[in-house]
Predict the structure.
Amino acid sequence: MKRLPRRAFLGGSATAIGLPFLDAMLPKGASVAKAADTSPRRLVFVHVPNGMIRTGITPKQAGINYEMPYQLESIADLRSNFLILTGLHNKPGSGNYTYPDGTVSNDGPGDHARDTATFLTATRIKKTAGDDFSNGISVDQEAAGYLKKYTPDLPSMQLSASSGGYGGDSGYGPVYQSAISWAGPTTPLDSLSRPSDIFGRLFMGFDPDETEAERIRRQHREQSVLDSVLGDIHSLESKLGPNDRMKLDEYLSSIRHLETRLQASGALSCDPGSLPQDSGDFEKSVDQIYELIKLAFACDRTRVISLMLRKGGAYDFLSPPNGSPITRGHHTISHLVGGDPDVAEIEVINRWQIQSFGKLLRAIASATDGDGQSALHNSLVLFGGGLDGTGHDANDPELKPKQSGAVHRHNNLPILLGGQGGGTVRGGRHIDFGKEGRPIADLYLSMLHSVGHMAKGFGLEGTAPISELAG
Amino acid sequence: MEFATKVFVRCPWVLLLGIVACSGAVEGAAGPGEGPIDPNDPNYCQAPIPGSVTMRRLNRMEYNNTVRDLLGDTTAPADSFPEDPKSGDGFTNNGAFLSTGPTLAEMYSTSAATLVETALADPDRRAKLIPCEPGEACAKSSLTAFANRAWRRPVEEQELTGLHRVYDLTIEDGGTFDEAVALGMRAVLMSPHFLFRPETTSNTPAPLTDHELASRLSYFLWSSMPDDELMALAAEGALSDTDTLRAQVDRMLADPKATGFYEGFFMYWLHVDEVRFSEPAPSIFPTFDDELRTSMMSETANFARAVVEDRLPIEALLTANFTVVDERLAAHYGMEEGNAGRMEFADGTRGGILTLSGILTATSHPDATSPVKRGKWILEQLLCSPPPDPPPNVEAIIEKGGSEAKTQRERLEQHRADPDCAGCHSVMDPLGFALENYDATGAWRDTEDGEPINTEGELPNGTVVTGARDLSETLASDPRYSACTTKKLMAYSLGRALTDYDRCYVDAITESVQEQNKDFHGLIVDIITSDVFRTSGGLQ
């Protein structure tokens, strides 16, 4: 029986070959499976820029008996699997902000930079286009630090539906819209958008063609390569100033990460399926990304994933009812300056986004964990954005979308929370935090607690988890 | 003694999650034994501080070019690495923004393995890398030579022990000569000495070593590693000589590898790289595709090359009456089939950077031109005079001309009518109006929705410009243009943003360029012979 080629698993420049699954995928004599953790808790964070029109996604009633709003029709059947959260805010993302200690910071325009950069960090970013940019650690990285004990060779993954095509914003440099995941104040994380690259990252180093003896030999040899590199890092370190040492330290951590991956590169406990073909088609790529997220969880390759669900150009595969395909950029339309036609275009985009969220939930739900529950039961999937963004007047009781001045608010964020977090979250409800609202950082605390990381605070304003989530 | 800079302070950052001790931004820098140095002090230029550059890793273009020159590999492996983050200037070679996280490290590892495997599988390339008979001595001499070239400097004895151990261990456990050497080469390519360009720095400014200078030069003008001639000059210590540097600039710009300069500097300075992500609406621009995208990027690089190689003054970048096209772009411009190469336009409808299709496309919406974006681009990228931030509720008022407005221009008239908007828009909009003959993909048009295009605009100082040619001439005579070009080129050559501490160097070079009407060769020589390029230190 023909063994499958090694190159296919190393990712990177691998050619797009379809790999049929065979029992032969598992290495001869290798023991299957890792830690028998039957209820793995995972977190997924999905960000959409430019906000969402609230009318269609905000039920008129709170609680369990809410009427499904029209924009959420595509996920109505998943009702018990998600919460609609109204009234969360991310004040550190505002133009004018007062710190908890009373310090005032009025930074003016730049809400899109702040939307993306602070969505998962919930802290104040420094307004600059210079080299002195600064943010904070993002909640997914905070979670990864705790959860990596289960998946040490791949603590987290950062994904993006499209790469590049972002810029600066009103005095904030492009770096702030480049990432939602930050390992620290000056370390935005790279994200992957090509399905073949994501597959390669998940399964790099797993070679079904390899015997135990071959694996040990390969690990010895590659470790000697890493040892040589580590020696170079240590000798270089002593010659550098503090700024340069920080850069080198980052590489050092990455080499340590490669060591961990190298030692773990033994058996796979699952069927990775075929190497995905990159089509360059946006919709298809997003579908493939969701399948890969499911695969990542089914194989327990990682338990923390973030995704920037953005499109660089126009959503030209969508048309509003009785309209033509959308030709303007998402941001341009999102301010609803043109009135009803713009509303129609944004609503069709938002419908697509919601449908996409539904696809992600279904994909994760299709995997089953050791405890017999769906993987979705044991996960939490945050979906939404850091801008209200609809241009509606907050004082308008009907929340009708209309063009207005205050379009860049960081209050009343559009947020859905999917999954049950292993039983810590009870879905199927609309929770309205009212006019006062809650910091989204409190939601992040809840999410951290749901995986066992009992953090006391997060960001500038996260002080207490949200008890209502448990129902 | 540790200094804090006005512009950036790096927080001592322990790599345990959440623990950050940040001292925040501090004004000024302290000189040795003195109070803080104020760069705006009139006497500052008597002893300006060059500062240091945060250590940069190779970016994608540099990685591709370096493995091409080091190993003969033309597969461009870094094309599948994540996008390099951009600095505020738009460059991807700024160390403050470049990082080496786990995703990239995995790709480096995979790439190194593939690069070495394919290089050794090719007999010609293998012979260059291993020019001796298999054996321990050959392995070690080959690895030493490879490291010397890959690390861009003579390798010290103790640095070789790690590499040699890789070879020895592999041989010991039964590996072949080739397997063992391959692993050693992978270690060379994974080393920080290869992936980064470290420069020793100190609290007081000091000259860079010749090898550090050679790397700065080659990555500046080639986006690649130094060649044998540069390395030889560095070994002799000859790069400290101004005449040698001048001669090297000429040689390097005449070398085909200078493509790395045109693609690295001009494309990113002018934001043409963004055309990779432009998506003109297919319903309006059905013929726009990846081939056209590539042609647009080539136009920018080749036009810049022509201006530089022909030794035209810097202003010619704006005022030239030609561009350089391939067949696809020629067709896009409505020219007859079979046209390609340098094309002159006596009627002034094309020529100079303002009419490059890449720029015109990157500064448009998917379905329409944007005079505001184009005006803003000119102010930011060509004059280094960015407009102030828009007022908070700006999107409430933009582009709302009502149904009578047929053209973009009419839609934008409200800017100048509203006093809140007029301040900035009276500067931005006329610049963009002058380019309205070029649609959202840079093609020429005489009408918009049936209305004849009006390209007349009045600048704040009363000058009236009509059309691209007029605007190009006006900008070329604005002293801010050559000053801005100097700044952008200096920032790119250094791999960091400029600060007030650089004003002396910028002013001196700008003056020299303007007084002597210099070309790009002259400007480049001025930069690389300046202390800001040749020395480093202070402002840690």
